[in-house]
Predict the 3D structure of the following.
Amino acid sequence: MADKDYSNHDTQYEIAKRSLKLHGLPTQLEQAIEEMAELTVAIQNLKRGRGDLRSVLEEAVDVAIVLGSIYHQNPDYFEEFMAHKFQRLEMRLDEMEKAEMRLDESFKGRVVG
């Protein structure tokens, strides 16, 4: 085990698959709820000046790990949903960038002051 590279995505993939197989989806869903709640608390603490980014990142990793195992319940659907969400995000970003360029153009040549 000490020879494994745990930063390798293939290693992570195999461990996440094993976790889903061993624990089952209902348990992984419960774990996801718990990990997301801990992430929420870490984010709130950071916003309030009582936490740090390291804590947020650590909790985000816990969420990513459990979501990785849930992914293996049906990777094809997950990938399909992921592609759709990224497509929507890109469309929104394109719209925002166009609006920003129009705003920039409307101020071209004007002197502020």
